[in-house]
């Protein structure tokens, strides 16, 4: 299979196999008016299998959301057919409005419009906790 290279845009590489649609939805790529190539289960020497997203448009990507979904993703910004910048992600220290607190007694369940904010409590186990009630969210 051959997928053309892009001239100006973004390539999300090293997405864990099977997570490409979660990334697609989180970035709201269906709202873009450009070509988006979704490659699933691509052979990889490092990972065995991986997913790739190619976006034929340059736009602001929330790197914290990407890092939360899969911190192994690499983000390559393409300018004039060449990689202009490459970023390696990490788990973000805080996530805002990415997850919802599961605690029915949390203030975020009662107060409309209050941000759903979580902090990284344990990096190795990828555990986040609500800043209001300390309820645990595991990715």
UniProtKB/TrEMBL annotation:
Record's GO cellular component terms: aspartate carbamoyltransferase complex
Highest rank taxon of the organism: Bacteria
Keyword Zinc: yes
SUPFAM superfamilies per UniProt: Aspartate carbamoyltransferase, Regulatory-chain, C-terminal domain, Aspartate carbamoyltransferase, Regulatory-chain, N-terminal domain
Keyword presence, Metal-binding: yes
All copies of domain Aspartate carbamoyltransferase regulatory subunit C-terminal, residue ranges: 94-138
Domain Aspartate carbamoyltransferase regulatory subunit N-terminal: 1-89
Any one GO biological process: pyrimidine nucleotide biosynthetic process
Matches recorded under NCBIfam families: PRK00893.1-3
Record-given protein name: Uncharacterized protein
């Amino acid at each position: 299979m051959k997928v053309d290279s892009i001239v100006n845009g973004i390539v999300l590489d090293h997405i864990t196999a099977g997570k490409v649609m979660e990334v697609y939805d989180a970035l709201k790529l269906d709202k873009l008016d450009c070509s988006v190539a979704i490659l699933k289960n691509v052979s990889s020497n490092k990972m065995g299998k991986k997913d790739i997203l190619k976006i034929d448009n340059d736009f602001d990507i929330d790197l914290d959301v990407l890092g939360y979904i899969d911190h192994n993703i690499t983000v390559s910004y393409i300018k004039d057919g060449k990689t202009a910048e490459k970023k390696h992600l990490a788990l973000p220290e805080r996530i805002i409005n990415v997850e919802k607190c599961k605690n029915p007694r949390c203030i975020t369940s009662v107060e409309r419009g209050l941000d759903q904010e979580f902090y990284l409590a344990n990096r190795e186990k990828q555990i986040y906790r609500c800043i209001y009630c300390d309820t645990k969210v595991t990715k």
